Amino acid sequence: MANPASDRISAREAREEGSERRRDPVATKAALLRAAVAEFAAKGLAGARIDEIAQRAGVNKQLVYHYFGSKDEIYAAALETVYAEIREREKALHLGDLPPLAAMERLIGFSFDYLAEHPEFLALLNDENRQEARHIRGSERLEQMHSPLVSLMQETIERGAAAGVFRRDLDPVQLYISIAGLSYFFFSNNRTLSAIFGRALDTPKVVAERRRHIIAFAMGALRP
């Protein structure tokens, strides 16, 4: 037997979805990705809900499936989004236009500042590690994003070595991991470190001190 109330709901949802599809698809996808980043950062893949992503974006949840297919797929797209943002910001540093010492100092400071300003990036990385990086491993786009950065770091290292200000045995991947790790550990473990050492490590003063320490520490490791 037909359910009039259910029929009305289905008809209403169909009208809403049709209206939403007439929106700018680029803007709709962008809104969904912003919402997905926030939802997955807050709750992880396991706890996030498509309903909540749609609600955050202000669209019908069917559009999530229309544009992305599944929760796993929009999760992968959210990861690509946050990685694309940091890679674009790194390109904007124009490291190749700077002397090698200044280029490395800028990159180290940027890496620290980005994590300080983007806790959602940390949260997504932590969750993807719990997923054994299966979404990152399956993304050709993410693999392509990292190649230009490694090449740029290699070029900067070579320029610095030729100028006599950097060691000649530096590996760009190892160096990037070390630079990222110095900042990542501080922010991802800030609460436990604060508890262990009995110090508030999240105050602006302490964060600024940590930034100066990391830059000096990393730059010292680069020198011959």
The major β-sheet equals: none
How many strands appear in the DSSP assignment? 0
Shape field: globular
Q: Measured on Cα atoms, how large is the radius of gyration? A: 22 Å
Based on helices, strands and strand pairing, what is the structural class? mainly alpha
The helix tally amounts to: 12
Helical residue percent band: over 70%
Percentage of residues in strands: under 5%
Question: Could you give a short description of this structure?
Answer:
With 224 residues, the chain is mainly α.
List keywords for this structure.
79% helix, mainly alpha, 12 helices, disordered N terminus, 0% strand, globular, 224 residues
What does this structure look like?
With 224 residues, this protein is mainly alpha-helical. The chain has twelve helices and no strands. It has helices at residues 4-21, 25-47, 50-57, 62-68, 71-91, 100-117, 119-130, 134-137, 140-162, 172-188, 190-197, 204-222. The chain is globular and about 60 Å long. The protein starts with a helix and ends with a helix. Residues 1-15 have low confidence and may be disordered.
